[in-house]
Amino acid sequence: MFPPDETAVLFANDAFYAAFGLRDFAAMEALWAHTSPVSCIHPGGPLMLERSIVMGSWRAILDSGQTASVTHLDATPMLIGDIAWVTCLERIGDNILAATNIFAREDNVWKMTHHQAGPTDAV
Description:
By secondary structure, this protein is of the alpha+beta class. It contains three helices and five strands. It has helices at 4-22, 25-31, 51-63; strands at 39-41, 70-80, 83-92, 95-106, 109-119. The chain has a five-stranded mixed beta sheet, with helices on one face. Helix 1 (4-22) packs antiparallel against helix 2 (25-31). It is globular and about 35 Å long.
């Protein structure tokens, strides 16, 4: 079992993958930070540094209808004060990606500030 803060971060991480898997843009938009800076690097994509650009990328991905089933495994939370990150593996269709998701506490709620995923040889 994890301490309460780590459990809350894992819950936020699970919410991210639930929104991704369900292609639920409203849920995806709600879990990203509103007052902290945000960034995102999709596999093979450019670095995105503005919330509007990051959210536009997620809208395009979720609305495309071409995303395969998404699951995550081996999630490990780490915290320093009001910043936390989760490393995990993503299974998207037949591909496995290594991912890092960073969260900041905003009004006592963990909000995503960064997502990055890329190819790995992990099985």
